[in-house]
Amino acid sequence: MKSKVPxxxxxxxxxxxxxxxxxxxxxxxxxxxxxxxxxxxxxxLAVLFVLCCCPVLPxxxxxxxxxxxxxxxxxxxxxxxxxxxxxxxxxHVPSVTAKAAALYAIWFTFQVILWYLPDVCHYIIPGYRxxxxxxxxxxxxxxxxxxVNGLQxxxxxxxxxxxxxxxxxxxxxxIIVDNYGPLLIMANIxxxxxxxxxxxxxxxxxxxKSDRKFSGNILYDFLMGIEFNPRIGKWFDFKLFYNGxxxxxxxxxxxxxxxxxxYELHGHLTNSMVLVNGLQxIYVxxxxxxxxxxxxxxxxxxxxxxxxxxxxxxxxxxxMYTLQGFFLVFxxxxxxxxxxxxxxxxGLSGYYIFRAVNHQKDSFRRSDGQATVWGSKPKYxxxxxYSSDNKKRQSKLLLSGWWGIARHMNYTxxxxxxxxxxxxxxxxxxxxxxxxxxxxxxxxxxCVRDEHRCKAKYGSAWDEYTAKVPYRLIPMLF
Length: 478
What we know:
Elements: E1 22-23, E2 26-27, H1 41-53, H2 56-68, H3 73-81, H4 86-90, H5 98-116, H6 121-124, E3 131-137, E4 143-148, H7 150-168, H8 175-178, H9 180-204, H10 218-224, E5 231-232, E6 236-237, H11 238-244, H12 247-266, H13 271-289, H14 291-294, H15 298-302, H16 307-320, H17 323-330, H18 337-366, E7 380-386, E8 392-398, H19 402-405, H20 409-423, H21 434-458, H22 460-468
Helix pairs in contact: 5-9, 7-12, 9-16, 11-16, 12-13, 12-16, 12-17, 13-18, 13-20, 18-20, 20-21, 21-22
């Protein structure tokens, strides 16, 4: 998320092109890069699946853990066997409480306040890029400024949570998991509200009329979004705010709340819980450290703001991305030293590959192909394409380093990290493995989608490139 379905907040691949309307020798369909102008039957079925099934999953996972020890099949098995009725199962669905409503309102308001604070981190942390940054030129020719201060918001939010937990005790550190069900419903209320508001806004008072897309299918437009950069005023940008705040800022706080709950229930903290908290914290900090870079990803360049981002960032991310910690509250897992070491190695290796792959491409682009790759002069292909202003331009496709091994090795690193989170939970339950299953489907689909668009941009040159780098994701296999 996200395009991602719904993968809000997930780190995207650096955008391989600015939206092109033509490619050498062939006219390109309008909107081929980005969401669609029209919807075919297969796309409509996918839309219905996402809108109908995805909202059910977080609630089902919640019920499976709180009432059935995270046994995913048990509720369905009991329902089929007649041991429980659908009405009885429905009674397990949480409802809103005044406490949860107040907590969610306080948290959301706090994140909005932090959004407007000028960034200080880029003045005091060497190498960090924050403050006011420019985004890419939109299809209609707009170039927007963004206030990049996510790292600052994360530090303040997590520092206050830890200060409370160890000293002030204004509230219990387990407050999130203790109110998980009602908070889940509050998150859904937020997700649906902002998605509906974004659609109404796109029709009645859009921020940039020329950057809207209408497919003529109201369900598709609701899911994928109409406005490219909906804003309130000059600075409140819906897409960047919901991609990073409040969900990703809360990710590590949610995990810490799980850890405190495990200690409260069982009297100790398992090494598996420590691994999940540590590895996912690295991921979150990396996202905010590279938030300025994130402005140049596919997510920001081509995703419109609709249900996929509005609901996905509000509900899917803070619940489905934290399944491992939630599982470990109810099923504490003690890994052997060898197993824990293997999980740690896999997670750190995945992160290293992800970051190294993106760094190679970024350095290659910034130096216009002059930066060394693995100590040698890089190999690359020069290709031509037509930009949105119908001018012929040149680009370089890197053939060295990680990019010579596979075309999406950054996704490979991402999947390694995702698998490490799941393996930390042992192998007795399917529940924590949803994440790697979801990420594999998502990233394989994204590989295919990205390459379809690159083919549309570069034409036959892309075929030549794929012949030189034949593997997409896994060397010697796929």
